[in-house]
Amino acid sequence: MAVKILSVDDELDLEILLTQYFRRKIRKGEYEFFFAHNGVEAMKLLLEHKDIDIILSDINMPEMDGLTLLTKVNELQNPALKCIMVSAYGDMGNIRSAMNNGAFDFATKPIDLEDLERTIEKARTQIEFIKKTQKEHSQLESLKSDLSVAGEIQKAILPNIYPPFPDIVEKVDLYASMTPTMDVGGDFYDFFRIDDDHIGLVIADVSGKGVPAAIFMAVSRTLIRSTGIHNNDPAQCMKDVNELLCRESLDMMFVTVFYGIYNIKTGVIEYANCGHNPPYLLRHDNKVEQLPFAKNVIVGAIEDATFENASVTLEKDDAIILYTDGVTEAENASHEEFSDERFVATLKTVPGAGSQEIIECIQEDVTSFIDGNPQSDDITLLVLKRLQ
Fold it and tell me: Is the pLDDT of residue 113 over 80?
């Protein structure tokens, strides 16, 4: 595209001189000239042609001089618009003022056109760089906006209405929370009714971060839910989901999953832990127990993998706490981790608390521990408490 140059000078001969000297570049479409005879005319042209790149302005002109024009141009706040000021060789005071007020460069009369051409090309290089930077900045702002919307969509697809099952509020107290470290996250939780007596419980952590993890998260969550609703066997559900993800997985992505099925009548949770952090049990007598570490492999990485179930029973007022490693591995400024020990200590401070209160207490303790240090990983929690 042509560099658009506005020449501002009350000497009409300059217009002829410039068009003659740069005639080849004008014909080739490299340069396009506009002409004004004072600062007032120049401002009108700038308003009409907002894509002008370079202003070649005399300092001493009637109606509005070059220094005043430079001030007006600065008010436009366009870093890609460059001003080259022109004045007599002995007018160094005004030239110095122009340079101090943001002029890109200067030329002295009589104008050395070869030197002016070099100055224009130098300005052109900077203008192209600035425009490229502005375009990239605009693209980044657009991407940031898209990611923000994607984050809101991601949150919206996870259950967020509490209590989730109004018909069993006297039997089950269930609450969950996800705090992504970026606009979009790779953690997710889910819970859903399988039938009148069973609830599916999911917490998972996708490998990686950012957009790829978020997309893989959405796919994994959908597959687990759609498979789990029609299958009362957690291990078989994980096997089916694993086969589907292995066929579709890119860049060796995988997901750690704890998937359990809670029996509302008996308090039994049958579960398959697939490479995920073992949940904690907060018993009604305030004792804290950790479930055994996972024996099953991660999901989405190994085709034809087999999975096994395990089970645990919640008594009245017992709670199970599912979480991702963003909780225990949260770091303070000294690179100390929150750790399982601190997690257990926190759980012992909430005897008799409801699910939401337990989660909020954990979040408060983690926040207090990291003490302003940036969150390094998604923090996701799900708590189910048996009420009867």
Answer: yes
